[in-house]
Amino acid sequence: MSKIISTKETKQASRLSKKHFALGVLLLVIVLIIVAGAWFVAKNNKQNTAQKGTDQVVADLNVKSHELNARGDYNGALQAYDDAVSQVQSADEKQLILLKKASMSAQTQKYDDAMTAARQAESVKPGVAVSQMIAIIAEKMGNKQLAIEYCKKAITQMDSKSPNYRMEVEEMKQKITRLGGTV
Known about the structure:
Oligomer: single chain
Helix content: over 70%
Largest sheet: none
Order of helices and strands: HHHHHHH
């Protein structure tokens, strides 16, 4: 009878140890899945951050600079733009940020700062938006000749295939005439 009990106990112990082994393996697999999942999420977060980096820099910049300027910290707002320019890589991105800086400066009637930012944008990447910004700032500063020069330059930079081309050219020509220039 003792052999029967020991055989039953051995079989029960064997089943119990197989269950423990299976549970251990299952637990190990679950831990590995969790670790792999955490690694995958962390890796994708880094990639997504890099992909949306520029858009996020520009969006954050707008919020930060507007908040600083609204609180009367104009110099802090300028610094936020400068920081953003140093964080982006492409000429398009730098130009966009510098134009935003020029616009904010012009809106606060800091025309020298606005012109400096617009000229920096021009040195990074010339284009119709930059020329139009320089023309606007020059007009606000009372420099009609420079405004006329940049209105004419903007016309030459406009996309003739644009559906608004004729209207935009006409607007620039009217502005040139209003400033005392000839087309």
